[in-house]
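Please produce the structure of this protein holding NAP.
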Amino acid sequence: MARTVGLGLRVAVTGGSGFLGAHLLARLRPRVELLALARRDLSDGAMRAVGPDVVIHLAAATDPAWCEAHPDRARAANEDLSRRLAHEASKTVNTFVYASTDLVFDGERGNYAETDTPRPISVYGSSKLSGEQAVREVLGERALIVRLSLMYGPRAVSTARESFAETMLARARSGEPVSLFADEYRSPLYVEDAAEHLARLVERPIEPRVVHLGGPEKRSRHEMGVIGLEVFGIPTHFARAGLRGDNAATASRPADVSFDVRRAQSLGMRPRGLREGFEKFRDRMKKT
Ligand SMILES: NC(=O)c1ccc[n+]([C@@H]2O[C@H](COP(=O)([O-])OP(=O)(O)OC[C@H]3O[C@@H](n4cnc5c(N)ncnc54)[C@H](OP(=O)(O)O)[C@@H]3O)[C@@H](O)[C@H]2O)c1
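Below is the modeled complex.
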C-alpha cells in the first residue's frame, strides 16, 4: 500500500492503478493523507486496519465483455468486494464514494436523471448496480454514488488501461480505419475532470447521495471519434460509422445512456465539452 502523509483527512482509494484512479491519486496526493490500496492490499480486514475518514472506491471489473463471460467473478468484484469494503470502513468512514456507471440504465430513453429507475441489461451494469445497493445498505447516508459516463483522455501512468479514445487515435494514426457505433449515445467525460470532481468531494461532500457526472453533450461514439480525429489532425475518414447490430456480441448494448447533468452542474460539477476535452488530451500528449 502506498501511503502519503498530508494534512487532515485520511483518504483511502481503491483502483488507483486504473485509468481514472491514477489521475485521482495524482490530484489527492498533495492534499490529504492518502492510502492507495492496490488489489493485493484488499484482503479481509485491510480497510478496517487503515481506518479511513473517506473512501473513494474505484476498483472494479470494468470490461463489459469480460463481465458477460464471467458473471460470477464480475459480481464478486463489483458487488461482494464493495459490500465487504463498506463494512470494513463503517467504523470510521464519513463518506464512502462509490464510482458507478451510466450502464446501470437500459438505454431506451436517454437523458437519465438521478430520479430515474436503473434497469441494467448487462452483467457489468447489473453488478455495478448491486454494488451501489450494497454500499448504501451498509452505510446509508454515508454512501455517495457517483455515476460516471464514458470517459476519454490520456493515461496518467503508462501501466494504466488505455481508454477507448487512445486506442482509436493510435489505430487511426497508423492508417487503420476504426469502426465506431453511430447508434450508441453517451455523455462523454474528460477523465481529468472526473478525477478533479471526485477529489473535491473529499473536501466538500455533497447532498443528495447520488449524482450523474457526465460531460455537457450527448454524443455517439462515432461523433466522438470524428471530433477526436479532427482535434488531433488525423483525417476523419478513418472513423467509420458502425452500428451495434453489425455484430451479435454488441447488438444488445444500450442505445442511449446519456445523462441529465443538471444536478451535477448545480453542485458545481461542470466538466468540459468534447472538443475542449480532446484539445486538453492533445496538449497532454505533446508533453509526454
Ligand atoms: N472508464 C470508464 O469510461 C468508466 C465509465 C463509467 C464508470 N466507470 C467506473 O469507474 C471506475 C474506474 O474505472 P477505470 O476505467 O479507471 O477502470 P480500469 O482502468 O479498468 O481499472 C480498474 C481498477 O480496478 C482494479 N480491479 C479490477 N478487478 C479487481 C478485482 N477483482 N479486485 C480488486 N481490484 C480490481 C484494477 O486493479 P489492477 O491494476 O490490479 O488490475 C484497477 O486498479 C470503475 O468503478 C468503473 O466501473 C468507468
